[in-house]
Amino acid sequence: MDFSSIPLLTITTFLPIVGALVVMVLRPKKTETAYGIGIAITALTLLFTILIWVRGFGPGLSQIEEFSWIPSIGIAYRLGIDGISFPLVLLTALLFLSALIFSAKIKENANIFIQLVLMLETACLGVFLSLDLFLFYVFFEITLVGMYFVIAKWGHEHRKKAALTFFIYTLVGSLFLLLAFLALYLFSDPNTFDMRQLIANPTLTGLAATLTFWGLFIAFAIKTPLFPFHTWLPLAHTEAPAAGSAILAGVLLKLGTYGFIRFPLLMTPDAFREFAPYVIIIAVFTALYGAFVALAQTDIKRMVAYTSVNHMGYLVFGVAIAAVTTTSSGMIALDGAVLQMISHGVVTGVLFLLIGALQDRTQTRDMAEMNGLLKAYPILGWLFIVAAFASLGLPGLAHFPAEFQIFLGGFDVYPVAVGIIIIGLPLTAALYLRAIQKVFLGTLPEGFSGVSDLNQRELWAIVPLIAVTVIIGVYPNSLLSLIHATTNFFGL
Amino acid sequence: MATDLLNILPQLIVLVTAVVVLCLEMARRPLAGLWFLIVGMAATTGVAVDMLGTETTAFSTTFRVDALSLWAAVMLSPATILFALLARAELKGQAREGTVYSLLVFATLGAMILAGSGDVMFIVLGILIGTLAGMAMAAHPRNDSSSEGAMKYFIYGSVAGAIMLFGLTYWVGLTGTTLLSELNNPYLSPFIVMFGFITLLAGIGYAASLFPFHFWTPDTFEGAPVSVAAYLSVVPKVGALFALAQVVRGLPVSVVDWPLILSVLAVLSMTFGNVVALWQDNVIRLLAYSTIAQSGYFLLGVIGMGQSGLAVDSLVVFGIAYAVMNTGAFAITLAEGTQLADFKGMGRRRPWQAVGMTIFLFSLVGMPPLAGFAGKFLLFGTAIESGYSWLAVIAILNSAISLAVYMRIVVPMFFEEDKEEQVEPYAPGISFVWISTFILTVVVGIGVQWFLT
User: Fold this and answer.
1) CB–CB contact A185 B381 (8 Å)
2) Which chain B residue's Cα is nearest to A171?
3) How do B56-58 and A62-70 pair as beta strands?
4) Which residues in chain B have Cβ-Cβ distances shorter than 8 Å to A137?
5) Per-domain boundaries in chain A
């Protein structure tokens, strides 16, 4: 068979769920076997993602795979990829592999855990690859179910409450998404759920466009999350198991930000332009609010969760800048925003894994109860310091090029807003330095007897992510060239 | 005449089946009755499937053979088989077991007549057959709670039916005929048409458990055998709501603003059903309130009649989806027990059934890619296309509340431990029902295309 005719996207998307079925059928008695299958499958998925890259794609949506599904109402199974979705697909494949390697310590109901994680991976890949509103929505909702069970079954103390809050809260969001999708369908001419058609010629105008825009906005603002829809996030992130938090922050939040770019920006561009000032105000407020609240936390996991709110504020700010202006500064900001998704996914993912490793050793997440741990766990400590520096935006690490571009693009259009939002940077620097000081510096308590430093399994999960952080920081163009080709193609 | 009879062949087969099953009960052969029911209903399904696509009327336009009435036959006949299997598992060996089979078929006949009504007399007839048969089935256990429930069902039915009959005489007086199609006249007196419509809603709202005509529902369901409660939650409801769709499709909006009236009822039903369900500890009562809420969702499709190209499709798909997912949920409740506490630790005890129940409940919420999602997707589309976007927003907020309702069953299944108890396999009838509805819940969700007209 010819390389170009293999349905790589479909294979990549459904490989994880096939793995889940394999685990379901074989029901391995030993957890090692089950994790072996799971890790092999996620590694294979990563390999297929790289094959997609090798095969190459143009700036527009390409490698299209299309099959008829519900022709009566214009629904089809449509997959495709471009420079905005591909980095996210790569991130998903990488982060799920790391998360699964890291969770291999979970022995309780391991088979079901692996099945859920694999189902979640299929759903996340499906969201990024879908080119049909209906298909997108199907995958989007399945992520909720998978994550609900991961938090509720394997989470920490308040897991049931956190899981239910997450589930109901984000369901409200996705139901608004459903309404907006139906509006996009009903107002398109001819009626279609094909995202390529809807992007190529956005037909919505007037009140319908306004309502659809706000429907999309609420849906993605809950998922991202933006103030005031963020309240589910700290609870869910804190209570989820480490791998769950890494996936939640690294991939699931990106469903929202990806949505902002794919739907409002491309399908209701005029309405977005009209309301962009409001979105910018919300984004600036979200960034600062996240930073300030993170500063007030004593629970280290909760603190990192709130820095996600801060980073998402920067990201949506970048998207809104792109909505306002069609000049090159808008494109610069948007490139930065897309790169920010990847940087945040990798950096926050690794931070949550490290905090999980820390919690396994100290049995607490309270920063006041930890001191001088760098001496006890030098590898863990130094990796955490690198990841924290990346998260606060140190040049040479992943967040810097992304945030730099967002602020650079924004400065041209809304210099005052950039002046305000940039206050977030010293705040996050302060909070990370304080956390490092409290937890890792200082003296170990008397008679400290801890378990050993990071073991082989944890290193296999964490080190590749740290390496990616450095690669993006040093050579951002590896991804930016792909991203820029696409943003340029859409003329954003 | 001969063509008329051919056109109502599905209904005739149901009638013959009901009578034969009754005769077999007189001969005290309940099992033979069950088998005849299965054969008869399967034959009805086959004939109705074959007739799909026909658009005609029978007996001087009093009975409509169209997408609604044929699909009602296609979905309700196999559903009746499933309910009969559940009833067999629950009532096996009891006295009067066979009468239940016969009554099931009679009530299905009522629902199928309703779904094709082209004449007010058919609506009255359909509701009467359904009520009488349903009441007798609900009273089957002959204990206090079942008698109370059946009595409520009967009295509400009589009063609602009488009010409806009274109001419909005004329609007949106004148009000089009992045909529904004669109402399609913009010069009719709005006040009288409105009066007739409101009284009609009393009768149909009662059969479909719409708020505020729903009061019998929780008590009757709780007292009745679980299989009968399952039946009452599906078959009469689909029949009554399809009848409502038949009425409004020819009713000019300029004479009476029926979409607005129905949308108010939809909001009340959905919100009341979901909110009150939050407080129930008895699974049957919880499902009873959920059925009130689901009736509200159905109305979104009825509102689109004549205004949205998706209306009939949405009613058919949601009807099928509702029938399969609700039957599945009742089947597992029948096997597990009617208290929320009975579901504790089910995920460990019976993992497959627990997954099945979760799928049914998620489908009731409207999670893709399950059947309930396909139905709600079309219903919301219908509402938006008909200009009722605000109603779609309320329906969506209600879906979120309903998630909290159904999670009250899901949570104890997976996250609460129970003392280890002896695990007995399900009765074969129940296993057949839940497995087949489970498969259908997934298949209908993915293969919606097959059910679109």
Assistant:
1) yes
2) B400
3) unpaired
4) 368
5) 268-492
Residue at B395 is within a domain: yes
Query: Searching chain B, which residue's CA lies closest to the CA of residue A137?
Result: B368
Size of interface A-B (CB pairs under 8 A): 73
Question: pLDDT at residue A1 above 60?
Answer: no
Q: What is the pLDDT of residues B215-274, one digit of tens each?
A: 999 999 999 999 999 999 999 999 999 999 999 988 888 888 899 999 999 999 999 999
Read off the pLDDT of residues B102-117 as tens digits, 9 standing for 90 and up: 999 999 999 999 999 9
Q: What is the ipTM of this complex?
A: 0.87
Q: Is the pLDDT of residue B320 over 80?
A: yes
Residue B418 lies in a domain: yes
Residues A89, A72: contact at Cβ < 8 Å? no
Which 3 state secondary structure label does DSSP give A47?
Answer: helix
Does the pLDDT of residue B74 top 70, yes or no? yes
CB B131 within 8 A of CB B207: yes
Rounded CA gap, B233 and B322, in Å? 10
Q: How far apart are CA B188 and CA B174, in angstroms?
A: 8
- Lookup: tokens for A172: 């409200």
pLDDT higher than 90, residue B315 = yes
- Tell me the two tokens of residue B282: 């008895």
Give every CB contact of residue A463 below 8 A, 6+ residues apart in sequence.
A383
Of B310, B367, B392, nearest to A145 by CB-CB distance is: B367
* Nearest alpha carbon to residue B61 among B186, B180, B183: B180
Q: Which of A72, A153, A176 sits opposite B415 (nearest CB)?
A: A153
Domain residues for the domain of B445 are 259-453
CA distance A429 to A448: 29
Please name the member of B384, B400, B449 whose beta carbon is closest to the beta carbon of A182. Answer: B384
Position A184: which residue type?
A: L
d(CA B73, CA B64): 13
* Whether pLDDT at B30 is above 80: yes
pLDDT at A203 over 90: no
CA nearest neighbour of B320 among B13, B137, B5, B48: B48
For residue A71, the chain B residues in CB contact (below 8 A) are 449
Tokens of B18: 């009901």
Under an 8 Å CB criterion, which residues of A touch B?
A: 69-73, 134, 137-138, 141-142, 145, 149, 152-153, 160, 164, 167-168, 171-172, 175-176, 178-179, 182-183, 185-186, 211
Cβ within 8 Å, pair B389-A183: yes
Mean pLDDT over each residue of chain B, to the nearest integer? 91
Query: Is residue B113 domain-resident?
Result: no
Does the beta-carbon distance from A141 to B392 stay under 8 Å? Answer: no
Average pLDDT over residues B334-360: 89
- Total domains in chain B come to 1
| DSSP letter for each residue of B218-238 | HHHHHHS-HHHHHHHHHHHHH
User: Could you tell me if residue B143 is inside a domain?
Assistant: no
What is the residue-wise DSSP string for B51-70? HTT--EEETTTTEEESHHHH
The backbone region for A206, taken as left when phi is positive above 0, alpha when psi lies in -120 to 50, beta otherwise, is left
- Mean pLDDT over each residue of chain A, to the nearest integer: 88
User: Does the beta-carbon distance from A138 to B369 stay under 8 Å?
Assistant: yes
Q: CB A134 to CB B377 under 8 A?
A: yes
Distances (CA, A) of A392 to A338, B128, B356: 18, 72, 46
Question: Which token pair is A227?
Answer: 């103030």
